[in-house]
Structure formats: structure tokens, C-alpha cells
Amino acid sequence: MSAGAATSLGRPAPAARAAGSTNPWLIALVVSLATFMEVLDTTIANVALPYVAGSMGVSADEAAWVATTYLVANAIVLTASSFLSKVLGRKPFYLTCVALFTVSSVLCGFSWNIQSLLFFRVLQGLGGGGMVPVSQAVLADAFPPEKRGQAFAFFGVAVVVAPVVGPILGGWLSDNYSWHWCFLINGPIGVIAIALVSVLLQEPKAVTEERKRLERDEFRFDAIGFLLVATFLGSLEVVLDRGLEDDWLGSNFIVTFSIIGGLAFVLMIPWEITRRDPVVDLRMVGTRQFGASFVVMLAIGGILFGTTQIVPQLLQDTFGYTATWAGLALSPGGLVTMAMMFVVGRLSAYVQPKYLIAIGATIVGLSLYGLTNLYGDLDFWHFAWLRIDMGFGLPLIFIPMMTAAYDGLPPEKTDQASALINVARNVGGSIGISLAQNVLAHRAQFHQSRLVENVIPSNVQYQRALQQATENFVAHGSAMLQAQQQAFAWIAQQVQSQAILLAYIDVFWVLTLVSAASVPLAFTLRSVKIGAGTPSAH
After folding, report:
1. What is the pTM of this model?
2. Which of 73, 178, 287, 423 is the most buried (most CB within 10 A)?
3. Looking at the predicted structure, is the pLDDT value of residue 197 above 70?
4. Of the CATH numbers 1.20.1250.20, 1.10.1040.10, 1.10.260.40, 1.25.40.10, which one belongs to the domain with range 280-538?
């Protein structure tokens, strides 16, 4: 039988797949390494922003664009990654992305002012945005359907663990060396990834045939569709990332981008649906299987990125943790997630994805519910154990969802599916972070206004607390007038602290509801073919 022939089960022979004659697990290792590097940069720079602002003499708002520009560029290029990988070839496009990401990362580390750093971050986002979807498409083609669950488990370690490692590593590098190393560490990793991809990765036969078809049919890039999608995603990212700081609709800047994004979205839908080869196949999102997977990825992206930012923030703001210890509270959960990826990879060969997703969403929801029980005496391990619980649940959602999303898709659609799934992850992450920060800000104001209603002279408990606080300050050597002022300030501080703590509780309630909503959504997925005897979905 020739290398390109099909087996008796209708499954392509090894040479027809992305791995060629190479062990597919080596391919999985290579693409996971590059993906880990890219996903790491979605969070590693966040903790370094104060250092960036200080060293470059800019405000905190200006430094925040270091994170925003990366996300915007990353989301935009995702929409064109499917087309570019088909036209240029998957392997050449992937190598270009890794090389662009690596070079721009090093240039970020050597930036001389904020303008140069933002420009290089845009380039970094453009390179990184094309890496993840192509990596997933490579895995989908390199492994037969019955092995994809395990392959996506291995790959999922990079996607789920990297955002957890990012704050810890970024804080440690910034504290002990310099914020520049948050970017420079990508240099040697990128060089290794480029060398391995060049040697190991082969172009699948289906991808080569698809490129020939495009050339034969004189396929043209959907430039208008790309412009509409890029405008919508870019505007959405800007609004979500800057809305809270710029007072939302009270800012002309936010209103302008909201209108632009809304118009782009309205025009995008009919345009993309009526194209023969759209830059984004919205008809896939409208299907039962892929559409439900897309929404689940929105939810898991929101929970993963939202909690990765809000939990360390809680520990530093309310419990007085250093940045290092706040990051370390997440690390046990990351280790559990890594181990569970392989366990779930095995389970996915025997259990339907919809059941695993429902179980995982329930576990994550219970973990988030545990975070609603906040009070001042909680210790480090309370948060670490709840994060460990979440570490058990996240892989049960992520891996089966990826398996379900690719079920039944032809090879020429895997790149498109990968792009859409990763757009959902990025957009879901932005929504999750924005939602958490907005709930925190608004509910803190609400709770403070309610608590202040009890801080009045006619309230007996307030008078008793004021008297006890005053006596305590007098006992420590303060004069009576000074002690009264200190007592007033102490009570005001307690009110503010309690309001913020209650607001964090509300944030975790909202995230709990998001996770709970994923449970019934999981049961809308159809059953997929699983087991060693399953024919190829291709």
C-alpha cells in the first residue's frame, strides 16, 4: 500500500498525516512547546506593567496598552490564520509565525521607549495569534480520532497551565532581574521550536490538495470580511480592556469604539454567510456541535483568565500577600491540571465528551462557590485547595470540548475550526476579566454605601466600636483628640475593607453562575464516535 493510500478503515496512512513518518507524539511536544511560549505571554507581562511604567516614565494607563495591544493583534490575526495556512502552506506559515513571535519577543526586551515596545508587542501578537490554531490543526491531522483526546490533553497542558505560570514567572523575573526578561526568555525557546518544526513537521496531503484547489479556482482572500471581523474584534478588545478605566459610556473614546465595533458586527454576519470562502465560516458557529463547543470555550476562557487575574488580586489587596505568594497560591492547581490532562485524555477514549464537560463544569462551579465563603482569617491553603479543585475540573471541560468541536469536520475545515476556537478563548478571557473587574468595582461601591448607612451617631454598635477603638489608641499613647481621629479613620478603613471583600464574593458568585450555565449546554452536544475501532472523522 502506498504512503497516500487509505487503510481498510478509511483512515489515511501515516504519511498522509501531519506527522508523516515521525512519531506523532514528537509533533505534539514541539507544537505544545511553541504554544506554551505564546500563551504564557498573555499573562506574564501583566505583573511587569508597574516596572515597565517606572522604567519608561509613563503612566499606569499607558503601560496597560502593553497587554491590550498584544490581545488585539492576537485576536485579529486568528481570523486570517486559516486562509494563510492554506495559501502559504501550513508548515511555512507556522514557521513564519514562530519566527516572528521569537524575534519580536527579543525586540520587546530591548525596547527603548513605550512606543517601540507597543509596536513590537503588536508584531508579537500577530505572530502568536497564528501559532495556536495551526498547532491544534496539526494535532488533529497527526493523530487518528481515537487518539486525539490524549493528544489534545498533552497540548492542553500548555494552554491551561501557561496562564497560571505566567504571573509567577513574570513576578519573579521582574523582582529579581528585570521586566525585560519576561520577553527575552522567549528567544532561546523560539529558536529550539523553529529547529524542531523544520525537521519534524510534514505537510499533510489534504492540506496540499486544498492549496492546489485554491490556486486552480483562483481563490481570493476575503479582504472585506477580514476587515469587518478585525474591526469588530479589535474594537471589542479595546472596549473590554479600557472600558472600566475610561468610565465606559461616559468616555467618548469608548463610545466611538463601541459604535464602530457594533456596525462591523452587524455588517459582518450577512457578508460572511453569503461568501463561498469566507475568512470566518460563521455557518460553523451556527451548527449544534461546533456552536455549543464555541460557547463552552467562551465560558472556560472567561473563567480561566478571570480567576487567574482576580484571585492574586484578592490575595494582595485584601489578605496582604506579596506578588510572589499570590502567584504561588495558583501553582498547586496548575500542577493538578497538568496531571489531569493525561487522565482525561485517557477517559475521553471511553466516555462521551458531553458527560465529561458537565462533570468538569460542576467541579469548577463548586470550586468557585467555595470562594464565595470569604472572611479575614482564611489561610494560604484555603485558596490553594480551592484552586486544586478547579484544577481537577478544567481539563474535564477543555479536552472533551476540543474533541467534540472537531468531530465530523473534514480536514480542510480544521484550520478554520482552530481559529474560531481560539478566538473564543481570547474573547472569552477578555470578557471574563472585564466582567470580574466591573462587578468588583460596582459592587464595592454598592456595599460601601450600604455599610456607611450604619455608621451614624444613633447606631449603638457604631458608638460602642468608636469608643473601644478610641480607648485602644489612647492606651497606645495617643492623646484623646488624636485617638478619636485615629478611631474614625480605622472604622472607615474597616468599612472599605468589608465592602471590597463582599464585592469579591459577588465576583465569584457571577463566575459560579457562568460555570453552572455550561452544564446544561454540555448536554446539547451530540454523541461522538469513541474507542479504538472508530473510523476517521475525515
Report:
1. 0.79
2. 423
3. yes
4. 1.20.1250.20
